[in-house]
Amino acid sequence: MQGTTAAVERVFREEYGRLIASLVRRFGDIDIAEEAAGEALVVALEKWPASGVPPNPGGWLTTTAGNRAIDRIRREKQREAKHQAALMHVDDTPHEHTGPVEDDRLRLLFTCCHPALAPEARIALTLRLLGGLTVAQIAQAFLVPEVTMAQRITRAKKKIAAAKVPYRVPEAADLPERLGGVLAVLFLVFNEGYLATGDGDPVRAELTGEVIRLTRVLRRLLPEEPEVAGLLGLVLLTEARREARVRNGQLVPLGEQDRAGWDRTLIAEGHDLVRECLAINLPGRYQILAAINAVHTDAATASDTDWSQVVALYDQLTRLDPSPIVALNRAVAVAELDGPKVALALIDRLPLTGYHAWQVARADMLRRLGRTGEAKEAYDAAIAATQNSAERAYLSRKRGELV
Amino acid sequence: MTHYLLTVHGPAEMEEFGNYGSKEEMEEAFAATGAFNETLHADGYWVFAGGLQAASTATVVDGRGETPVMTDGPYLETKEVIGGFWVIDAPDLDVALKLAAEGSKACRGKVEVRPFEGLA
Questions:
Q1: What domain count does chain A have?
Q2: Cβ of B93 under 8 Å from any chain A Cβ?
Q3: What's the confidence (pLDDT) of residue B82?
Q4: Inter-chain contact A163–B94, Cβ cutoff 8 Å?
Q5: Could you tell me the sign of the dihedral formed by the alpha carbons of A131, A133, A135, A138, in that order?
Q6: CB contacts, 8 Å: A170 with chain B
Q7: Which label site among A37, A139, A299, B19 has the fewest CB atoms less than 10 Å from its CB?
């Protein structure tokens, strides 16, 4: 029974983005969509354990939720007959072809990433509506109290409804200026899937998979846009290593991964995309990150990695984005060329004490320098700064190996 | 369709040529705003619009008590105040934002876009 409930909830989570997006398209209202989806889950939890999961669970959920939404709208129509003309417009017809691509989730993504919404609300809404994360999980990812996150999401949804933020992919002429915000959110969602912030599943493949799917749709929409190709290359080359990245519940760092476990098809596609970007020669953030990942996935073994190339690419990225996070990643690559002492000096300068990756990098350099006592402290700080179970397990092992 | 209030914000202290640097600049902005208003009419978005006198000409009235209380000056003493506004009728926020950007460019001020809950 317990197992069946978990199975129903897993199917629901996997189907959530598609379900919500199609309900929003049909009923034009996020609240109605979320409520109907929630009711469909309740019905599924009642029925599926006895009858079994239907052959097309996504279709079943969409139909059930759609019927619930219509029931609700009818009830409210009777109760508030006076307001029906203004509020209760039910669109049962196929959606109009407003954008160049027909995809409910892509439409909803552009709504969630609308420039009229605050940046922190965009990613939160995307994770909630398309990623199916709970408000509690999103709050944990942002390190803010759940009440704060709930208010942020509610406020954004209210603005979408009251100010009439449209549910559509922008017209071709407006796409390029809207693109930056969408790519940023897609990359953040991918990262959340690839290394989940909370203490639940350490890796959320349905999130990384959804980002890849949406980025592919974007690429069909904007085949000439090198940053879209760059982001797709980046996420494919990262996803290619996902299976090799966790072993026995422990994170495996890039240098220790079993490269036979990497997905060669994804790598080949990623490399093609990087070559395509190089030919266009309009470098951008995602293209450079993709190129760095191409260098890594090009090396037969960790020691074959062309670190000077990696550092050169980080130098190029620093010129576009001189942020401390880029400087941290560059320093980790510098360690392979100039040694951990040089890298540690670079790392110690950065204002990132609260960031777990900074603590991890610092711990690693101190360990390599034989400064065991300080390394232990840094590992403790790193473990305290992350809730991801696989990362904690890895860091605890590394700390335990220090004598 | 939704009604939106587009308010133009500018400095409370007016110079000789309003908020503009020179007479030419002021005349250009007026002409551009006039042309923008024409397109609002032509494209069917126009509901109402107007420019306001300086905030120092405002009077606040509190009629909640037995006799109304009058106070000279604007409700809030701020460095930036509303200098004028449009009320438009647009299909969604994207259209309203696009029109606000055109209006902002024409009148050379920042524009706030706010949806109406309803219109009497």
A1: 2
A2: yes
A3: 93
A4: no
A5: negative
A6: 94
A7: A299
